[in-house]
Amino acid sequence: MLKTDISRSIDNVEGKEKISGSAKYISDYAIEGMYHAKTVRATIAHGNIKEIKLPHFPEGYDSVDYSDIPADNVVGMINDDWPVFAEQEVNHIGEPILLIVGPDKTKVAKLAQAVEIVYEEKTPVFDFKNSVKQLAFKKGNVKKAFQEAKQIIKHTYETGYQEQAYIEPQGFIGYPEDAGITLIGSIQCPYYVKNAVMRTMGLDEDNVRVKQAFVGGAFGGKEEFPSLMACQLAVAIQKIQKPIKFIYEREEDMEVTTKRHPSRTVMEAAIDASGRISAIRSHLSLDAGAYLGLSEVVLSRGMLAVTNAYTVNNLDVRGDVYRTHTVPNGAFRGFGAPQMIYAIEMFMHHVAKTLNQDPFAFRMAHLVKQGDLTATGGIFRDPIILRDMITHAVEASDYHAKVKKYNDPNIFKGIGMSWFLHGCGFTGSGEKDKIKAKVTLEKTKDDQVHILVAAVDMGQGAKTTLRKIVAGILELPIDVIVFDNPDTRFVPDSGPTVASRTAMIVGGLLARAAKTLKEDWITGESQTVSKRYEQPEYVAWDQEKMQGDAYPAYSWGVNIVEVEVDKTTYEVDIKDIWSVYDLGKALDENVVLGQADGGQAQGIGYGYLEVMRHDGGRIRQKNMTDYIIPTAADMAPSHNHIMDNPYPLGPYGAKGVGELTLVGGAPAVSLAIEQAISRPLRKIPATPELLMEAIEHD
Amino acid sequence: MVNTHRVTTLQDALRYLDENDCYIVNGGTDAMVQHRSWAETPVAFPKDTLFIHDIKELNYIEAMPETFKIGGTCTYESLLFHPGCPKVLKACLELFASPGIRNTATLAGNIANASPAADGLLVLYALNAQIVLQSRNNKRILPVMDMITGLKKTARNKDELITEIVIPTTSFTHSYFKKIGGRKSDAISKVSFTGLARVESGIIKDIRLALGAVNITVVRRPEIEQDLIGKKVTDVISMISDIKARYEPHIKPIDDQRSTSRYRKTVAMNLIETFMKQLAQ
Ligand SMILES: Cc1cc2nc3c(=O)[nH]c(=O)nc-3n(C[C@H](O)[C@H](O)[C@H](O)COP(=O)(O)OP(=O)(O)OC[C@H]3O[C@@H](n4cnc5c(N)ncnc54)[C@H](O)[C@@H]3O)c2cc1C
Questions:
Q1: ipTM
Q2: CB contact under 8 A, A626 and B270
Q3: What residues in chain B have their Cβ under 8 A from chain A's Cβ atoms?
Q4: What is the number of the ligand 1 atom nearest to the C-alpha of B118?
Q5: What domains can be seen in chain A, in order of their start residue?
Q6: Whether B43 and B101 share a structural domain
Q7: Global pTM?
Q8: pLDDT of A516-543, one tens digit each?
Q9: DSSP labels, A408-446
Q10: What pLDDT, in 10s, does the model give residues A70-97?
């Protein structure tokens, strides 16, 4: 390879295997003599288990529950409140109580159905009542700004559940190996799984091995949830000493796995004499569901996005995570940012309207620039090209002319624009203190170079881009760079495949390793180079006070969506989509465009289509018929434009892209719909049912 | 476990139906979904099951001057691309499921499944379709409105097969099909509407309105239509609220995971109005 521009696309390295069907997903695995496991779940939202009546088990069949756990009945993640199996108390419908394991699936299913559980029911809580985590930070002098305000404007914004809707449901297969346990799974984070299993089982690191199968989509849904299944399966394997396959069914998956947190955001702005925002008070509420899991970190990422791509000098930002008796919510592409970016983008527009100012000019007047302080008092150090990006998007879409034209309330058309940023990598000092990523390049005697990292290609193209980085620096053809699915026996912990960090952080480490290897290269000899993450010195973060640089770098984007609303049926038709992205430098243009098309569909779908609700704690839309995600027919062709703005510490200048493409979709489509129906919206998804209520009953 | 039996001739199918109490699978797009079971375990069919999709002699379309006939195993995709396919049916099929489903699903299955949200069935109501039911020793023809007897209920005897659907050839000056699904492809109707009319010299000669997913079966009210026949379209405009009021008691939609009763009702009423206004144009 190839002194050509890194951005030039090559064939996705997994494409052939996936299209031909030879790629092995978790349900394709079979092990001679394997058993199957099925979960028996709570049928009430809250209460105590009084009695479990098990059926008679024929030879070879058994149940597995909390009493079989060798060490901790806890799924090890950021907060330790999530049990592997319910012991006495159940806290949501679908909470796992025990597994039925045996050789024949039909019999396993029958036995699972025959388990009878007697409960003593307690009153469940479903609203924002029981706060279990609070975060807060401040900037400037909010009190003074509000005292001096000419006007105060306040609105509340609400967002619903969103389901990841990966093609492949969650699953593992596992077996006893030597003195320990080996698990193969559809996962994003091999080491999260490994660490959780070690903790639950009381096993040391040599005795837990985790391998990644091909992953049929994840979107954050396979970040922390797989640890729960893996711990349960490990307990079962230890007890039964057989290989066991453990795969969720679609409806089971949709009912009981983590989703995007429903939220409520209160935004209150102080307007100064010049008609600009002098201060914002904001409060973000997240519904964690029954267990916290990662919710605190989701809350923090949400709060950090409070001013999005604007600079506001005085801030008072607070947030609460509430526990409810519903399915636990967790990681999902964007991780709290989509909720807050929806709120702030709508709010900026609504404030401008209230002030009788042109929303575009109003928003531009608050635009962030290089050198400004972030919401937490860090510094935007790197060049910001957002102004040029906006100009490009505005011209490409003929935005201003359309805004004017569609202001006519009789034509039911609208155009909406969002702009946004997304912090790349873990929040704050997470990369330095928690993850401490390590990568290794191993050159064999025949001069093949193996990439040893725990990063997972879940369809986003990590195998393609990471191989390109290494091949590019070593100036070698891509096919001598080997990147197998991670196996914790061989790969170091380069961290989870999350937080838009893989290309920038893991890729950056690989680039450094490749440079060293190139310098020391000895043909025909085996060589190993490892690199560990080092935080740029200027990045300083105080987690306690939430002050400083929350992220080492930011990616930026602009989305414009044009819609038409049907006057008879209130249906929304997406007419056109324009986007501009600054992700530093594209490591492969097609990979980025894939992220753009997919992320936009997911973000726009979140804004107008994807309804998921619970009724007394029971999820109502639990299959792909009832949970409506957009099809290709629903999305307009999108015009995507990538603008280079290389980040000095990223490989080839690359920053993150995975989440960026989702976070602006909901406000862009909502603002377009709002214009089309000439009525304000403060809630997503903006469904035809909601539009009807707004139009017919205002 | 239940037995399964695959037939390739009508005669074998009718004999099997005569001799066994069995469940029928045609394209399987309702049957397989409704009887899904844990992956890699047998489909949970309620009883012995007869697979009829391979009966070639029922896989036909016959466009005659008076009638358009559709065989019992004919798929939507072949219907959609048949030049004689009635315009309103074509409009429906373009929005029906997605190409993959349309390549196996059948109109016979849509009728027998008798869902109030069935799109094909809705159009058949408006087209006054006749359903041919055949058993080993008998053959009878029922108007589609008599075929459907309730929510997911039909007049089919258990030894009968739907072998043909007959659509009388009629020309319409106005043809309106509207499906409101959750999205543009692969969606179950939240509300659906078919309006057909023949207007000559400003006079309504024929008019048919059918509404889906707003009651336990498709709603069609011949007595209201009858009163409109012979009226001037220009007069109809002033009657719209009257017409809507007459339909109103029959529009009794439910609240469910896909939509609200209020939305369904409001939109159903809007669609009636939109269609009536089209007549005057
Ligand atoms: C993804 C997807 C999308 C869909 N989209 C739509 C849609 O847009 N609109 C819509 O209306 N439906 C839709 N459906 C439902 C389904 O495709 C239709 O109802 C279809 O017409 C059923 O036909 P089939 O041949 O597959 O029937 P089957 O599933 O084989 O059978 C359905 C029922 O009819 C009976 N049956 C079938 N053939 C006969 C016969 N010849 N005689 C007697 N009984 C018979 C069966 O016993 C069964 O009870 C969708 C389904 C899926 C899976």
A1: 0.96
A2: no
A3: 37-42, 98, 178, 180, 182-188, 191, 257-260, 262-263, 266-267, 270-271, 273-274
A4: 11
A5: 31-123+165-256 (3.30.365.10), 263-427+547-696 (3.30.365.10), 430-532 (3.30.365.10)
A6: yes
A7: 0.97
A8: 999 999 999 999 999 999 988 888 899 9
A9: STTS-EEEEEEEEEEEESSSTTIIIIII--EEEEEE-TT
A10: 999 999 988 889 999 999 999 999 999 9
